[in-house]
């Protein structure tokens, strides 16, 4: 079973580009267009890594990170927060396949 990655970004183009890149590398990918959407998805589905954009309207990446770390169900998920969505995929290189 492939590792599952949740990409969180408010820019649809970034979501689509990263989804394609990660899927080509053999990962299962889920997407969320903001912090609140990410929390909702994570309440329903476990993932191995969250790639979280820092700057988003509504709940930004730092706020979402705080909620995820405070919840025992999501506190141990590996999370990468970045200001540049183009660099989110670099976190994947450290994941076992």
Description:
This protein is α/β, with parallel strands linked by helices. 34% of the residues lie in helices and 21% in strands. A 4-stranded parallel beta sheet has the order 2-1-3-4, sandwiched between helices. It is globular, with a radius of gyration of 12 Å. The N and C termini lie close together (9 Å). 27% of the residues are buried.
Please outline the helices and strands.
Layout: E1 4-8, H1 12-24, E2 28-32, H2 35-44, E3 49-53, H3 61-70, E4 78-82
List the keywords.
single chain, 97 residues, 4 strands
Task: Write down the overall geometry.
Answer: globular
Give the biggest sheet.
4 strands, parallel
Mean pLDDT: 87
Structural class comes to alpha/beta
Number of strands: 4
Give a short overview:
The chain has about 100 residues and is of the alpha/beta class. It is built from three helices and four strands.
């Amino acid at each position: 079973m492939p590792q599952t990655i949740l990409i969180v970004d408010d820019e649809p183009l970034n979501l689509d580009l990263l989804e394609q890149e990660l899927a080509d590398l053999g990962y299962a990918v889920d997407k969320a267009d903001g912090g609140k959407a990410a929390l909702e998805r994570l309440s329903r589905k476990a993932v191995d890594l969250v790639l979280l954009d820092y700057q988003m309207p509504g709940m930004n990446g730092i706020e979402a990170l705080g909620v995820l770390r405070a919840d025992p169900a999501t506190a141990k998920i590996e999370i990468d927060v970045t200001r540049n969505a183009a660099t989110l995929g670099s976190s994947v290189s450290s994941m076992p396949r």
